[in-house]
Amino acid sequence: MAKKSNETTTNYSIIKVTAFWGIIISGFVSLITFVLRIVARCGISLGGAGRLISIFNLIANLALFVSVFLAAYAHSKGKSKTFRILFWIFSIMALLSILGINILGMV
């Protein structure tokens, strides 16, 4: 007999997959960043290495944010409206922070 799939199982497996790939992407980007910094310290000029490292760090942070966001979203679904509003406010603030936009510094 075939297994029944429900929404909770599907959401849980999506969270697991995004968490796995978030860690893989983050680790790969960290390795590339490490190699680029070693090459730069050896005196080999890599024209846009600093910019490339920044882009790779942004990709790694976004990959981890997506996995944490999906897990937190699944957790907040069954909570009160106030909790969900706070979730969205802090999620947006975290995303803007990753993108380099500081909301609290504007006040």
Largest sheet: none
Spell the H/E element sequence: HHH
Rounded to the nearest angstrom, the distance between the terminal CA atoms is: 60 Å
What is the overall number of helices? 3
Number of β-strand runs? 0
Rg, nearest Å: 19 Å
Rough shape? elongated
What is the strand content? Answer: under 5%
Parts with pLDDT < 50 across at least 5 consecutive residues: none
Mean pLDDT comes to 81
Kindly give the count of domains. 1
Molecular structure report:
Helices cover 76% and strands 0% of the residues. By secondary structure, the protein is mainly alpha-helical. The chain has one domain (7-106). The longest helix has 35 residues, at 7-41. The relative contact order is 0.10.
What is the structure about, briefly put?
The chain is mainly α and 107 residues long.
Task: Spell out the key features of this protein.
107 residues, single chain, mainly alpha, 0% strand, 76% helix
Break the fold down into its secondary structure elements and pairings.
Layout: H1 7-41, H2 49-76, H3 81-98
Helix pairs in contact: 1-2, 2-3
